[in-house]
Design goal:
- The protein contains three helices and three strands, in the order βααββα.
- It is of the alpha+beta class and about 70 residues long.
- It has one domain: Arc Repressor Mutant, subunit A.
- β2 and β3 form a beta hairpin.
């Protein structure tokens, strides 16, 4: 699961299921586990969908962009 975060820093259970070729319950469990560990941040997208963000990936991209802009 961790290996796909740089390529897919925003996930849902459906996208995780597709990317990892696992069942929907397995995808949700993996996302919840990484959320509990502080690796992902959950955000309700709509009534039935929760999105998960790999915040550190976005922070790394922002940091890199700022460094490149200052050179």
């Amino acid at each position: 699961m961790l290996r796909i975060l740089p390529e897919a820093p925003i996930l849902t259970a459906r996208s995780t299921r597709r990317l990892l070729e696992v069942t929907h319950p397995a995808a949700r469990a993996a996302l919840e586990e990484l959320t509990a560990a502080g690796i992902l941040r959950a955000k309700q997208v709509d009534r039935k969908t929760t999105g998960y963000q790999a915040v550190e990936v976005f922070e790394l991209l922002t940091h890199t962009e700022r460094n490149l802009a200052s050179t």
